[in-house]
Amino acid sequence: GAAELAQVLRKLTWRGTERLFNGEHQDDDAVVIQMPDGRVLASTVDVFTPVVDDPHTYGAIAAANSLSDLYAMGARPVFGLSILGYPPDLLGPDTAAGIIQGAIDKSWEAGVVVAGGHTIKTSEVMFGLSVVGEVNPDELMTKGGARPGDLLVLTKPLGIGLLTTAIKRGMLEKEEIDAVVLEMMTLNRTAAEIAVACKVRACTDVTGFGFLGHLSEMVRASKLRAHVSALAVPALGRSLALATDGVIPGGSLANLEFSKGFAHFDPSVPYEKRVLLADAQTSGGLIVAVPPASYERFEELCNQQEQTFQLVGSFEKGEPGIDVS
Q: Which helix (H) or strand (E) holds 132?
């Protein structure tokens, strides 16, 4: 699996990593490097297979997902390059162009230019962006920046993986599908800007490893323990009901199994809620460690700018891990 591969990759002989602003083998969402002129750049790349049928929508979701990694670091994306793999016998050029156009349009919504890219023949469709942005070192947010007492905030509800699985099985009505698509297409730009304005030092986004998996990266990097209220964690649509009915993607089940190594559930937490916490997200929200002194301001800005958020827990001193009750 991905976790095992990550461990193997750490053993490779990486060269020149002393030039990186955030060091070697960090679990941060983007690589950060200081240029000779003093500017600090952040860069990331992400691709995934389709989660919806419409080419333009798929491209837009992929762009939002890729941009999210820079937003989670407090960076301002500047330009991106597209990466498209597709089987020509199954996907015509107009469909391929529609995917890229979706990414161009969503990126431009964020003020980001898609400057070109690369296309290759593959056995299945996959698409994403490589994105470069700038970041002020004083505003940099990393997974290791949390402090004891910081409040744990989630900016999008969970359940996207459960719902997209239901979409593939033809189980959702159009209104439900539209709600999931809107969630995936929503940029994390506003949430990140609010976090930076509130002097947040620790943040990450929720994608393939699920809420628990990405939170585990934060507690390890910060050397803290997280306490999560299962009741407080918001669920998108009827994702909890789908989990109860066994409509669960394989990636989410793998995440839940993997979480046994670092997450402790109170017996009162039902199975469907555990699945939700481990659900593999596509273009999910941000996990933000908000300093207590900044929380009132964070809440105020979110309400002013119609940014969804939910206080779901806190970070405390203790052995790195997650307690869910």
A: strand 126-134
